[in-house]
Every structure is written in structure tokens, then in C-alpha cells.
Amino acid sequence: MALLVLVGRVIAVGSEVTFVDEAANPARKSADVGWDPIANGGVRPELILFLRGFFRVGRAARTLALAIQSCAVDLLRRVPQRLKDLVAAVVADLSEDGLPTDVFGIGAAVADDDDGKTGDDWASDGEPEGDPGVDMEDVTDEDEVEPPYAEQLREPALADTGGAGGASRASKCVMPLMPTCPSTAASSVCVLSFLRAVVVEPVTVWAPRGNWTATTSLVTALQDEGFSIRTLAAALNHPDVAELRLLRSAVACLGPAVAANRHLRGLLARLLGCLPATMRMYDAFVADKFNESMAGDATNRGDQGACGTSGRMEEEVVDDGDDEFVSQEEMANAHPHQVFTASQYSRAWLRSACDDILKTGIWAPGLPVVRALPDFVGVAAADTDQADCNHRMGQEVLFTGGSFGAFCTCQHPKCVGVKVLDGSEGQRMPIEFVVQRFVTFPDAIVYDFACATLKTALVRLPDVAKDVKMLVDRFHWGKSHTDCSLAMCPDAYKSMDGVNTSSSEERNALSRRQQHHLRLMKQDQFIYFTVYQQALSNVIAMYRDQSTKYTTMKWPEWYRRTHVDT
């Protein structure tokens, strides 16, 4: 399918072959799955037109074709013969445009354009037709010369040629930009990074908290009849557009091309416009699956009472004293002047807290369970929520399962919750913790395996995927996420500047120094020690938040030097 996206559908006997009705792969579960990228692969036509309009896809197409030909014979026998002929034609072709010549009687279908125009709208003198603000013949005074594109669009990549190294990298690029797209070595990288994120990552990364203002404002500017570099610069300066640095950089780097070529401007506008349309299709899909799930649960649920939906369990009251038992809710809602005994405090808070920690292995002060974990209404099956990433998690289990901690990202990180694990750590843990205990969802979840967490949320908890950004911390991003796109990096978002994304690693450093004797503890001892350690670290962090040069030192000198001032 990827090869068909680059070079087009096959033309055989004068008609276009879509491969929708081809015999499906016998190894696939569904017997009606064909080989067409649009009908069967879910590829948007706008993406195909964007690829062929802006990029020379010949090198990438030949790379895919050679990879297909090098596959095992057992896999090649399942490929339709007409596709094999197209692969051979692409390998034999030496052109840069990726449109194979007439080999074996097979040709590639040329994508139709709604405007009926080709990708070359240049005038005879090398200037665009009908675009205001770019006719250099009207410039007669030196003071009226437009500033460079890099200065107008505030994009440094347009001014970075890269020197000899940049020229070398550009010559080795598998999918370079068309000659009609003026670019530098740095701007080409920005455009390719944006394209990779569009292809690889879910559409939710372009709409933080469901806000599509950035995309719609750019589409409006591109489709405006009075389009010019100045109007594009005004749209790029919108706060919502500036927040998505990957999107802003790519559109700015394509600014010279879309300003000079109306056809390319339409291709870019249609690509950006299809992103909200894809989200609407996803919402409709989720709604259909939710209705099916609710209909199925109604027949199997039976009479479970209120406890099946409230997500709260009745507390077991153990009365071992003369004082009347008072629950935590009653104590919190009591009159400020009402007095409670020490035993009532201990039974309501300390004893119940210790019992809950030992039973659940979860310590989250100030974050009680406010809702039950919703039913998974997605279409997840085995391995469908595993990310295609080189980051490995949970594959090696040594000694005990360890612990999973949730921390804030302030200057002095504090633990908001810790869970002692009885097995391997999984990508579902961050979203389960947030969904069950946060009244209002946070803006972002920073996790070392956020790429898999986002995919899990898409197929299991769609509302979380749309409302919360999933990002990889900077420490693990440069270390083990080379297969993910830049959309998962915190640096791709302006609001993440200055945010300490490695707060959990800082707090876990102390635990790693004590891992040798922690491995020898029993489960109860391990839970108590972990909770005590995080609680004490929170006290130290709060002390650092309030400490000044006038603060009285209440720590012992040896403890302050060893643990507080480190």
C-alpha cells in the first residue's frame, strides 16, 4: 500500500485498478480486506496529493520496491501479479518523479486535481501568476524590497543553508522536495518531520484538548483570495499556531513555495483541512462502538445495584474503642468548632489509610478515587495498543515488580501518588491513575512510554486521548525513542518550555541507590518503606519551595548536608 501511495494506482488495459476486490491475504483474519491504500488502508487522498505535489518520491518508491523484491518467496506469492509488475517497473525506472515508465504494459495512474491544474504554475518569466505581493516588477524603490522569508515568517530554518554538510545531506535525502519548492537543508528537515508526524502519529496531536484553532486559522489564511506572505505570517503568529512548533515550522518552510504557486497552496490547505475531518470520522467510529458496547452490556449486566456504577466501596468499620466512629467524609463536613478525639482521628485516617495502602499498594495523598475506571469501549485486541517503537518496557522482570510513581513537574518535584507493582510496568498505568483520581484532567502526561500510552488511550479511552497530551520525557526521548516522530517530544510544544519533564527520574534516583536491600524486603515492608520514602521526600521538597536565606534550619546538620542540600 505504501508503494501505491507514492506512485499511484496501476493502469492496466486502459483502466485504473484499485485492488479493492483482489483476493485478500490468506493470513489475514478478515476475508474482505483488499490492497487499495484509500479503500482498505484508510489513507486520505489529500495526503497522496500532498506527497506527489511537494516531493520527488522516486528514490523512496524504489527503496520500497527493492525491499518488496527482497522479501521471502512465501510472502511474495500472496501479492497480486499486477502489483508485482508495478514493483518491477518502479525498480527499473530511474527518474526522480517516481512515475514508472511503461514496463510490462503497466503504468502508474496520475492523481486528478480538483482545479485541473498541474504542479507547475510558473509563468514564462519565472514568476507566479495572479498572486498578490510577489510580483517583483512592481518594486522600483530599494526601500520597498520585501525582507527575506526567514525574517518575515520568523523561521530560522529558511536562513540555514547548512553549508557543505547541508548540501551533502540534501543530496542523500530519500524524498527531497520538488524544484518548485525553494528550501534549505534545515527547512527540508522541518517539512519531513511534519510529514512523518502526520503519517505516523494519531490526529489528536494536532488538536490539544480538542482545540482545532491552529489548523483552521492556517487553512483560512491559505484559502484567502488575498493571500500573501504577510497574511501567512499573521496566521503563523497566532498563539495556538505558535504552540504547535512542528506545524508552524513546516508551514513557514513551505511559505515561499505556496506564495509562488497557487496549486501547491491548495494542496497544503487540503492536507491541513483533512485533519479535523479525520477526527470527526474517529468520533463517529467511537460513538458507534460505544453504542454497540452499551447494547451488549445491557443484556449481560443484570441487576448489579448502585455499587456497579458508582465506583465506591463501603468501608469496613472496625469498632475497637468507646468513642463513636466518624468516617472521613463526616469529619471533613463537620462544623469547624466540633472536636474529635485522638482515637477517632486514628481510626478514620491513619488506620484506614494503612489498611488501604496494604490492600491496594497505592498511596495517593489528596487524590482519592473519584470515579471508577470506565469500561473499555474501544476495539483493542491483542497487540493493537502496542506502539511501533524501539523503546522496550516490561520485557525483563527481575526480582519484584518495583513501583510506579506520579510526580508533578515543578522546580522541586513532589510525589502525588505511588503504586507498588506485582508485575511488569505497563503503558496503561498513567491513564488509569489519572482517570480514577483526577477530577480535572491535566494538560499533559509525561511518560517514558507515552507513544504506547497514547495508542492505548485511542483504542480504549478515547476521551483521554483527545483531552490530554501524551509526551515522552526529554531524558528518554533522546535515548530510546528514535522511531517516534517529533510530535511526541516536549520541545515540539511551546507550553512545555522550562517544564521539568525528568522529575520522576530525579525522585527515583534515591530509590535506585537503595535497590539492593529493597529487593530483599517482603511486600508489606516494601510498601511501607516506599511510602515513607516518598512522604519524606515530599516534606523536603516543600521545605525547598519555602526556604530562603532567612529560613530557620530545623533539620539536623548531618541530615541537612546529606539529604536536603544535595
Structural class, from helix and strand content?
A: mainly alpha
Largest sheet strand order: 2-1-3
Shape: elongated
Tally of DSSP β-strands: 8
**Nearest-angstrom radius of gyration?**
30 Å
Strand content: under 5%
Could you describe the 3D structure shown?
By secondary structure, the chain is mostly helical. The protein contains 25 helices and eight strands. It has helices at 2-7, 45-54, 58-69, 73-76, 81-92, 149-152, 163-171, 185-200, 213-222, 229-236, 239-243, 245-253, 255-260, 262-301, 307-310, 328-332, 342-360, 429-437, 450-460, 462-467, 474-480, 503-513, 515-518, 523-546, 557-564, and strands at 10-12, 15-17, 107-108, 362-363, 403-407, 415-420, 444-446, 469-471. The strands form three sheets. A three-stranded antiparallel β-sheet has the order 2-1-3, with helices on one face. A hairpin with a 7-residue loop joins strand 5 (403-407) and strand 6. The chain is elongated. The two termini are 56 Å apart. The model is unreliable at 23-31, 101-144, 303-320 and 377-383 (pLDDT under 50).
Top keywords for this entry?
566 residues; mainly alpha; 25 helices; elongated
A few lines on this structure:
This protein is mainly alpha-helical and 566 residues long. It has helices at residues 2-7, 45-54, 58-69, 73-76, 81-92, 149-152, 163-171, 185-200, 213-222, 229-236, 239-243, 245-253, 255-260, 262-301, 307-310, 328-332, 342-360, 429-437, 450-460, 462-467, 474-480, 503-513, 515-518, 523-546, 557-564, and strands at residues 10-12, 15-17, 107-108, 362-363, 403-407, 415-420, 444-446, 469-471. Strand 1 (10-12) and strand 2 form a beta hairpin.
